[in-house]
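Internal tracking record. Fields below are filled automatically when a chain is submitted to the structure queue. Please do not edit lines marked as system-generated. If the sequence contains nonstandard residues, flag them in the REMARKS field before resubmitting.
Queue: standard
Priority: normal
Entity type: single polypeptide chain
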Amino acid sequence: MHESAPGYDPAAHRRFAVGALAIFLLVFLALAWRPSYRADWLLENALVFLIVPFLVIGYERLPLSRLSYAALLLFLCLHEVGAHYTYAEVPYDRWCEALFGRTWNELVGWERNHFDRLVHFSYGVLVTYPVREVFLRVANARGFWGYLFPLLVVMSTSLLFELIEWGAAELFGGDLGMAYLGTQGDVWDSHKDSLLATTGSLLASIVIASVHAGLDRDFTREWNESLRVKHPVPMGEVAIERMRTNEELDVRGSDPAR
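SYSTEM-GENERATED OUTPUT FOLLOWS
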């Protein structure tokens, strides 16, 4: 049973989550039909096959907010578009030309397909709040740490994904490896992707902090309290000695003969 709270209707919340899942499954199935490169589509969705079931299974224990589910839904749908065409070949230029008579790259002066950059930036923008929600509700992160930890997660997972891309490209090689890597000849592609994810997360954090500062009267106090030193005694060897001493006391206390 989930606890009730002002503005939280468990039944309505479940309907929203189920609706978000249904929308994603429809998008997923539609874009799973005849993708440009089936092998690349499978690689691109390897993490999706893990993450979506994890969110479904974890709902009973940790239902996220509607805002978090909406953000994750939007990101996953963007990802599925990239997986269908491959990130380097999403035909947004063709769509733009059909609507406005000119390609997007012509309008802004781009020379490559930047859909991958859009999705990396969107990862930072859209995933930061769900991660922050988990840290606040599970790890009880507060103040400064409630903003730093999600940023670090986005940065580290972005780096991890770039390493996974590199490893997959080395493992599979050939056209499949290059399609999955999607550098389009840019030797700094992975660096730029990680920078965009970080920038997106920073912007999301600034927006979240601004909203909280305007609505939460305890924002400043909580921020300052999060930076206060709670344990003035150094750790390291001091903590080891304390644990060793406590262990000896526990052993003596459990043995009356000592």
